[in-house]
Amino acid sequence: MVVILKPKTTEEDVQKMISYVKDMGLDVMVNTGVDCTVLGLLGDTSRIDPDTLMLNCHVDRVMRIAEPFKKASRKFHPEDSVYEIGDSKIGVEKTFTIIAGPCSVESEGQILEVAEDVKKSGAKLLRGGAFKPRTSPYSFQGLELEGIRLLKEAKEKTGLPIVTEIMSPYMVESFVENVDVIQVGARNMQNFDLLKELGKCKKPILLKRGLSSTIEEWLMSAEYILAGGNPNVILCERGIRTFETYTRNTLDLSAIPAVKRLSHLPVIVDPSHSAGMSWMVEPLSLAAMAVGADGIIVEVHNCPEKALCDGAQSLNPKQFDSLMKKLKGVGKSLGIEV
Amino acid sequence: MVVILKPKTTEEDVQKMISYVKDMGLDVMVNTGVDCTVLGLLGDTSRIDPDTLMLNCHVDRVMRIAEPFKKASRKFHPEDSVYEIGDSKIGVEKTFTIIAGPCSVESEGQILEVAEDVKKSGAKLLRGGAFKPRTSPYSFQGLELEGIRLLKEAKEKTGLPIVTEIMSPYMVESFVENVDVIQVGARNMQNFDLLKELGKCKKPILLKRGLSSTIEEWLMSAEYILAGGNPNVILCERGIRTFETYTRNTLDLSAIPAVKRLSHLPVIVDPSHSAGMSWMVEPLSLAAMAVGADGIIVEVHNCPEKALCDGAQSLNPKQFDSLMKKLKGVGKSLGIEV
Amino acid sequence: MVVILKPKTTEEDVQKMISYVKDMGLDVMVNTGVDCTVLGLLGDTSRIDPDTLMLNCHVDRVMRIAEPFKKASRKFHPEDSVYEIGDSKIGVEKTFTIIAGPCSVESEGQILEVAEDVKKSGAKLLRGGAFKPRTSPYSFQGLELEGIRLLKEAKEKTGLPIVTEIMSPYMVESFVENVDVIQVGARNMQNFDLLKELGKCKKPILLKRGLSSTIEEWLMSAEYILAGGNPNVILCERGIRTFETYTRNTLDLSAIPAVKRLSHLPVIVDPSHSAGMSWMVEPLSLAAMAVGADGIIVEVHNCPEKALCDGAQSLNPKQFDSLMKKLKGVGKSLGIEV
Amino acid sequence: MVVILKPKTTEEDVQKMISYVKDMGLDVMVNTGVDCTVLGLLGDTSRIDPDTLMLNCHVDRVMRIAEPFKKASRKFHPEDSVYEIGDSKIGVEKTFTIIAGPCSVESEGQILEVAEDVKKSGAKLLRGGAFKPRTSPYSFQGLELEGIRLLKEAKEKTGLPIVTEIMSPYMVESFVENVDVIQVGARNMQNFDLLKELGKCKKPILLKRGLSSTIEEWLMSAEYILAGGNPNVILCERGIRTFETYTRNTLDLSAIPAVKRLSHLPVIVDPSHSAGMSWMVEPLSLAAMAVGADGIIVEVHNCPEKALCDGAQSLNPKQFDSLMKKLKGVGKSLGIEV
User: Fold this and answer.
1) What is the pLDDT of residues A71-93, one digit of tens each?
2) Residue D18 structural domain
3) Which of A150, A205, C153, D276 supports an S-S bond with D248, CB 3.0-4.6 Å?
4) ipTM of this complex prediction, to 2 decimal places
């Protein structure tokens, strides 16, 4: 951590500042520049809050050099984290895991049919929303517990482990009992009370990146879960908010190699929500594989009477099957197993 | 709501689409253009989800014309909403309410002293954090319930109503019992489960704008609380995330006249968190008044030994007193009472 | 185009508005809603400026339905535009063109060596900066005309056509004479006087997307060149500015399928500048191919004494050669020729 | 400047790096941390390009501590820069200068009438666009030289100095001869060739902030003009691009105190273009004064037949007169002369 003192800070005040920092158990190097003095703080600075240092009237700016996360950092955990869930090993090198299913669980018929379809095409886990975070209080909020029940039924029929989103700390116990991977949505990425509760269980947590979160904040949210005692976090890039309006969000694929370098946690991509247009799902899925993601979570819906239609952001089973074939082809050329 | 159909949609499919929309209880106007057909949906479209319409394979785009919020809309509630809290009437025209206090409650001595100081200078409510949303799990998370207890003590001593942040639906009952205004932080603006719980009580809710939320989404989050049955929402602009890094966030002061036009809810400004630098608090506070906000929530800290210092984003009591005098001056020229 | 009138506009004023629009040669459909009246403008609206309509006191908002670009639009030009430059056919389906070379031309030795290296590995065009847009007036501004001369020398030796950036309308004549593809940098994407000058020549123009430009604005800048009479525009996505600071810019790969759908113009990707880190170039290049780009423009430097080093954003020739091999592998699986 | 070396850089390589930096005429302090070594570069680092340092394979990151601008910096020029133009002294403390006029010069009648109106209400300079940067090649591009002629006529009649936008280096000579303040639009803020040309004249340059420019980049563009020999630069904040769509751009009023602290150059605000809605001009203008700007540049149009109307972003003369009265009132309370 580097602390830049204000110009004209007196030698006496510099010494006070040094004592203050040493009292926190850190070593200090003094860099006396032309305009200002810069202190280099040496030691474990991850517990130091830059804002606290800023409270000192002689401090102009504070810059972090070491990352603020530890348990999520590849530095202290060089090997990839790998989680075995059903038939899949998420995070293992040269493997690309497909999670697929409808945006919302709507009925028994729907979820069973989609589950069988995506399994046939090669999906390893089934996704489906039971509790839906909706911008409007007047929109459909999901089938809730009935949705979880139907997902379990689909799991029994197909053997596919299930992934579904949690929205409230009240539901943690029920989710731990009933689902295989607990998803935290983008809007709850910094719902710290929820993260703390999830840190107490051992279920794999699929942590989506917040709409305007930096990579560092995203890893700090993972750190909350890890620090709580749950080592099983899967990151999911789902697009960030920019000024561009053609796509719903801007999928940040460069975040994938960044996260792989900074952290040992697996990271997957959601190509459906980011763009919000089904015809973009295929190119973005192939790009997700090429850029080094550990998998994708993709929306597949099933409405026989609209079989030739593409929904806003969902593929139909036929389109999904075609995507799977292309992923296998590209995977082969890169030595990646789908 | 305007539904733009894909080019080359057949007349038969246009008719199917029209029937589909009429079945939702809406009227339809058909605009047959050169390239495409555009349907104008007439009636109450606030309950229509554009994404559902997008599921139809002939729909190219959907544009809202009416706002999706109703209870928060000035259209259906032309008079300003006003809440009497202690000595203040937040939201009444030509009145500017000051909420002041430390970022975090740290000790009995601190909160009592700051409370007395800000009261003396003219603050109408006392703010202070007890539960702190922190990016890092290793940072100080607040005094929690002990912090609430100390705030109540300060209220007893000074008569100032207290404002403090809630982070979990578990705490709603306790907050309703103990505090006067319940703050929802930027990171929880779309924590819908929390909003639903707060919709069940009658306490005024101070709803901060999310870091990357549009004005419409912010008002939709207010709508969650209003739709739940709690009519008492105060909005708070606290800066949005942009590419600019000199300031911590970019205070969006143009959101104030926008919100005043779109909604009847009071809207205040947080000049302390947005910039993250105490020397910006005064100019931004004056600008907040000039742009038409109903008040400000400002950080004031109190550390006698650092009396000449400015912390990162807090004013000291003397600086706060000087700000109050300037606000009164500008207020006088604009006919605004502070 | 849809014109939303203000609530409470009188019938008389609606009729005036209709006459006004009809005088512009357009047809009008009237949609009388509960809250407001919406006019559907039918006909060629590409020459209508929404801001002019907004000048009318009864207009609340104007929304475009048809795209404002015509010559750049796939609607009016369904076949892909293809340009033959040297041995490459940029824009032809299932072909991926590689443009490579140093960020700046530094010396004869450097540019000749890099040119031969990249040619050997399979690059089809040589890039190299002679005029450099630099944020600071104190930074190296390029070798300027001497740089152009050295590029031509490299072209003579290797046969590779050359791509280099123009910064001033003064230089158009000289560039037309000496280079094969004229690059317009992100910072000049809306330098309309430069675009107009380039519209008068017939050289292929490589038009980079502006740092905060929407896809629509980017295509409108292409439209300037096309409308001027030059049909040869190649688009280049190079990252947009967001709040994320880990990468220099956020490469918007979803813009590629978007542009391919909206326009017939070829679109390539710059994986070097966007991220600003050489270790990201390979994954982003592979992703660019997978997402459907027509090629990449990639920085390759050459400093024997630093042969084992990776520069900030440049690959060395060995790394570039390894990238080419991987691109060929992935290309094979997708039926794409490199 | 702080140079963070990669973890595991050998002592030998650290020494090489130190020699390399010393060869550039700088002193070096070495901070040996637990994970990595950090070099503090002491001396004049404004001419050092961080990207060049990044080319070294042992460098992980480079952080600037001193600002990269010098002539624009308040550090080296503590007194406010003040320019006398006509009756105004732009930049002098406690003075607020009003520049007003139509978006585009449309006709002799229009510009003369508006000029007289705004003068009567207290404007000190006349604005009006002759060369218009338009996103679409099909939109009206301005009256060009005829527009300049009409502006001069309005100046003769009213005595108001004129401000108008330049778009091409070709026009610098003509502008120097005919106008009083040369405006550089947001889209040309990094048109470095234009900036260099303007650095050769002595006319005051009104430099608008780019749509997605940081404050530092904006000051670096001013530095281009200053470094070229023209000391007369007025900065103009006009809104930045964010995800918010209700306003056209987000006016960044916190940039005003930031610029006043970092630089000695005057900074004004454009409240018309940023929001794009005339009813926002008044509150944003008052806020601009309250936040410490040196003035505003505001659009006033004049169309008698639409006298009761508000255009998209322009005030009519009556609204402008009312704004002037309010500015004088607030100015009085803050000791600011309008």
Assistant:
1) 999 988 999 999 999 999 999 99
2) 2-63
3) D276
4) 0.93
